[in-house]
Amino acid sequence: MTWEVVIGLEVHTQLSTQSKIFSAASTAFGAEPNTQTAVVDIALPGALPVMNKVAVEKAIQFGLAIGAKVNRKSVFARKNYFYPDLPKGYQISQFELPVVEGGAITIRVGDEEKRINLTRAHLEEDAGKSVHEDFHGMSGIDLNRAGTPLLEIVSEPEMRSAAEAVAYAKALHSIVTWIGICDGNMQEGSFRCDVNVSVRRPGEPLGTRREIKNLNSFKFMEQAIKYEVNWQIEQIEDGHKIQQATILFDPDSGETRMMRSKEDAHDYRYFPDPDLPPLVISEDWIARVRSELPELPEAMQARFAQQYGLSDYDARTLTASKALAGYFEATVAAGADAKLASNWITGEVAATLNREEQDITACPVAAEALAGLIRRVMDNTINNKTGKDVLKKMWESGDAADTIIERDGLKQENDAGAVEAIIDGVLAANQAMVDEYKSGKEKAFNALVGQCMKASKGKANPAQVNEILKRKLG
Amino acid sequence: MTYTLKQAAELLAAGKTSAEELATDYLGKIAAANATLNAFITVDGDKTLAMAKAADAARAAGNAGLLTGVPIAHKDIFCAEGWKTTCGSKMLEHFVSPYDAHVVEQCTAAGLVTLGRTNMDEFAMGSSNENSAFGAVKNPWDLNAVPGGSSGGSAAAVAARLAPAATATDTGGSIRQPAGFCGVTGIKPTYGTVSRYGMVAYASSLDQGGPIAQTAEDCALLLNVMAGHDSRDSTSLEMAREDYTRDLAKPLTGLRIGLPKEYFGTGLSADVAQAIEAALTEYKKLGAEVIEISLPRTELAIPAYYVIAPAEASSNLSRFDGVRYGHRAAEYSDLNEMYEKSRAEGFGWETKRRILTGTYVLSHGYYDAYYLKAQKVRRLLTEDFLKGFTQCDIIAAPVAPSVAWNLGEKSNDPVANYLADIYTLGVNLAGLPALSHPVGFGAQGRPVGLQLIGNYFGEARLLNAAHQFQQATDWHSRAPAL
């Protein structure tokens, strides 16, 4: 009997604002504990929250980017519970009326495309951190993070495998970083995923879900979901019932473990925060944000295919990140042929970055420099193979392509007479191969081309060699 | 000598006294009377005199404003940098605020000198001042009587002439009722007029700061200082500064005073009714017209208030957890026990009662039946008032069903205390402005106050009416013999 996996995600994205969601304190990461705290963040008596408009604007940007409804009126609510790193004893969040509702994101697993619908996205504040390492028998509290703006993005339970869940998380990560509302730094906790997992027999109602909290890498997410799915199936097949619970994933053991059961679940006693009037977003504000929104990945992909004549695959690869797309367009703008630029960037450049475990933002060869190299391939100054060697040297030295070609004497030999002389020499020295070719062995032709290229020290134009050789043997 | 705020300002302006002299004089009075009245929780002569000297220096340098050097008292609910801000609670017994409330900032900027911090019901919860962790305040008119609450310390201090005026707050009557019980004048402005920034929150959607003073004119002067938009409070109204003294001199000819019949039924004691009747006669003499109106859902104010206020309080008071500041139990074995013991030890009974009530009404399964229903009632009560204001300019009503009761009389009966709030709660639920001014004496020679309720932003009209009344009568200038 088969099982169907049902997965929904709640993702906490830290919005990249200068100051906190309800105070003027800085949100910068890594400062000395409790140095970035205003009276609101320590929850002194009498302190009051004031909404950060930039955070709202980022929520609007997100809503528009995923085609969701941006609510003209949304309401902040208090989520009440006691915890030492929650200074007010409640978290200001949104409950009944969130700022963003609906919307959808396209994911791709293998060749399959799928639309994942979103339930909502709401604004809320982050809590502080408990610090256990430095204090013997005590806990420290660092409230620097308290009040950092979060957009909690909730999907519908529409993912059916770990791969889909990871693809969704990656797509979401790509969107929030693309539109610049979140730095996407998962190690620093800027993008944290809670994953709701349940299993059922196809066609049956939803099974009981367990929520895996705080996954901060795509790899762990995949491992955690796979482990959890197997665990749930085993439990049910052994005749047990799944109990609703919140669980944690331990990357060391690769297992999930219970954090709290439904019985321990808090009654958060949500109610509208009387310190904050409803958040009202005007049509004008939405229109302005819309006009300032950058071109989104899907639109850009379509444009790349159309404007540059690229394949869908190449267009999608180049629009995987805003930085990569920008690099491509800068290369083209600097005079490189679009198709060649695409080939070089998705080929040699991507492979080298991959080897060095870097992304395009760390590429030592600037787009203009790459264009300089591609131009030399285009005008037959060098051939493709030499180009790869030149790129390697550019990567290491930072020198321009022309400098390297000149210095190392890599210019392609385009003089037909000189090439003919080389070919004549090769034909004379390889009579056996010539005979083989003439007796019908096509392979011998390629071997002769190779010999000619070798004799030219790689500088001959392969197309020209081909042409002349064919004429002479023909 | 005792002075009104205005008199003190005039003496200072005329150079007939100095801020230091005034401060010294009042500090002496407080030292003499506070052991009896317990109106102040904290007095710090050094700080007061330093402020007074600074005010004198500012005046000497030609930088004096209207009220520079005039001493006032602050309710111990307004955070003031360097001052203990206890809010009447053991929880904050040793809490020294690192920042100023907007009200305190404004008062300091106006050159007002702080005489001390007045006693109050713990976290402003109460109407007798018996819920203070620092002992009950006594009514200066009768030491066996309560002064009212929660701003009992401010009202008693002004009544006993230990300060020309004091700041206070009103969530369900906490300015008007103690002003009434102590024979002084106090106004709660329209919700959003005075910033709540730095004012320890009890019930955020109801809390509002305001002045208590001897006269309506003084209230107008102090409200001029306390009011004003503050971007740090998101519920602060964005409106231009207004001069609350602007209409004081207007005659009352043609003023339509509405009497809600529901406020004058059974439950109102005869002595209070009589004093109010006499006051209304005086208002008629001044040219006002008195008409009967109806506020049919008045009695629903009590259950609605005692759902909404505790609900907000239960959440507002969660920050007092012993983690960052405030009382923390000496011994505990784990986190939960730290919370439980710290809060059990730090909060008094009334506070605990309201936290429990509030937690209950917000709980899963009860929220709709209590909190949402109460919010609906709140809208209905507001509609009643607005309908009333189509027939009259201001509404006159008792402040409380009786004069001040005896200390200890209701302290074991919370419901009796809650019921006595019937005439004041609706105003807070609707967010309307209302004042209370003295109109005579009732049983056992205890003061009676009259409440005047205005439409939104009607403060100047209310102050005008009370001022004209005070020009024609002298109830406001009677002082208790101590």
Automatic annotation (TrEMBL), chain A:
<comment type="similarity">
    <text>Belongs to the GatB/GatE family. GatB subfamily.</text>
</comment>
<dbReference type="GO" id="GO:0016740">
    <property type="term" value="F:transferase activity"/>
</dbReference>
<dbReference type="InterPro" id="IPR017958">
    <property type="entry name" value="Gln-tRNA_amidoTrfase_suB_CS"/>
</dbReference>
<comment type="function">
    <text>Allows the formation of correctly charged Asn-tRNA(Asn) or Gln-tRNA(Gln) through the transamidation of misacylated Asp-tRNA(Asn) or Glu-tRNA(Gln) in organisms which lack either or both of asparaginyl-tRNA or glutaminyl-tRNA synthetases. The reaction takes place in the presence of glutamine and ATP through an activated phospho-Asp-tRNA(Asn) or phospho-Glu-tRNA(Gln).</text>
</comment>
<dbReference type="GO" id="GO:0050566">
    <property type="term" value="F:asparaginyl-tRNA synthase (glutamine-hydrolyzing) activity"/>
</dbReference>
<dbReference type="GO" id="GO:0050567">
    <property type="term" value="F:glutaminyl-tRNA synthase (glutamine-hydrolyzing) activity"/>
</dbReference>
<feature type="domain" description="Asn/Gln amidotransferase">
    <location>
        <begin position="326"/>
        <end position="473"/>
    </location>
</feature>
<keyword id="KW-0808">Transferase</keyword>
<dbReference type="InterPro" id="IPR018027">
    <property type="entry name" value="Asn/Gln_amidotransferase"/>
</dbReference>
<dbReference type="Pfam" id="PF02934">
    <property type="entry name" value="GatB_N"/>
</dbReference>
<dbReference type="InterPro" id="IPR017959">
    <property type="entry name" value="Asn/Gln-tRNA_amidoTrfase_suB/E"/>
</dbReference>
<protein>
    <recommendedName>
        <fullName>Aspartyl/glutamyl-tRNA(Asn/Gln) amidotransferase subunit B</fullName>
        <ecNumber>6.3.5.-</ecNumber>
    </recommendedName>
</protein>
<keyword id="KW-0436">Ligase</keyword>
<dbReference type="InterPro" id="IPR042114">
    <property type="entry name" value="GatB_C_1"/>
</dbReference>
<keyword id="KW-0067">ATP-binding</keyword>
<keyword id="KW-0547">Nucleotide-binding</keyword>
<dbReference type="InterPro" id="IPR006075">
    <property type="entry name" value="Asn/Gln-tRNA_Trfase_suB/E_cat"/>
</dbReference>
<keyword id="KW-0648">Protein biosynthesis</keyword>
<dbReference type="InterPro" id="IPR023168">
    <property type="entry name" value="GatB_Yqey_C_2"/>
</dbReference>
<dbReference type="InterPro" id="IPR014746">
    <property type="entry name" value="Gln_synth/guanido_kin_cat_dom"/>
</dbReference>
<dbReference type="GO" id="GO:0006412">
    <property type="term" value="P:translation"/>
</dbReference>
<dbReference type="Pfam" id="PF02637">
    <property type="entry name" value="GatB_Yqey"/>
</dbReference>
TrEMBL record, chain B:
<feature type="active site" description="Charge relay system">
    <location>
        <position position="150"/>
    </location>
</feature>
<dbReference type="InterPro" id="IPR020556">
    <property type="entry name" value="Amidase_CS"/>
</dbReference>
<dbReference type="InterPro" id="IPR036928">
    <property type="entry name" value="AS_sf"/>
</dbReference>
<keyword id="KW-0067">ATP-binding</keyword>
<dbReference type="Pfam" id="PF01425">
    <property type="entry name" value="Amidase"/>
</dbReference>
<dbReference type="GO" id="GO:0005524">
    <property type="term" value="F:ATP binding"/>
</dbReference>
<dbReference type="InterPro" id="IPR000120">
    <property type="entry name" value="Amidase"/>
</dbReference>
<dbReference type="GO" id="GO:0050567">
    <property type="term" value="F:glutaminyl-tRNA synthase (glutamine-hydrolyzing) activity"/>
</dbReference>
<feature type="active site" description="Acyl-ester intermediate">
    <location>
        <position position="174"/>
    </location>
</feature>
<dbReference type="GO" id="GO:0006412">
    <property type="term" value="P:translation"/>
</dbReference>
<comment type="function">
    <text>Allows the formation of correctly charged Gln-tRNA(Gln) through the transamidation of misacylated Glu-tRNA(Gln) in organisms which lack glutaminyl-tRNA synthetase. The reaction takes place in the presence of glutamine and ATP through an activated gamma-phospho-Glu-tRNA(Gln).</text>
</comment>
<feature type="active site" description="Charge relay system">
    <location>
        <position position="75"/>
    </location>
</feature>
<dbReference type="InterPro" id="IPR023631">
    <property type="entry name" value="Amidase_dom"/>
</dbReference>
<feature type="domain" description="Amidase">
    <location>
        <begin position="22"/>
        <end position="463"/>
    </location>
</feature>
<keyword id="KW-0547">Nucleotide-binding</keyword>
<dbReference type="GO" id="GO:0030956">
    <property type="term" value="C:glutamyl-tRNA(Gln) amidotransferase complex"/>
</dbReference>
<comment type="subunit">
    <text>Heterotrimer of A, B and C subunits.</text>
</comment>
<protein>
    <recommendedName>
        <fullName>Glutamyl-tRNA(Gln) amidotransferase subunit A</fullName>
        <ecNumber>6.3.5.7</ecNumber>
    </recommendedName>
</protein>
<dbReference type="GO" id="GO:0016740">
    <property type="term" value="F:transferase activity"/>
</dbReference>
<keyword id="KW-0436">Ligase</keyword>
<dbReference type="InterPro" id="IPR004412">
    <property type="entry name" value="GatA"/>
</dbReference>
<comment type="similarity">
    <text>Belongs to the amidase family. GatA subfamily.</text>
</comment>
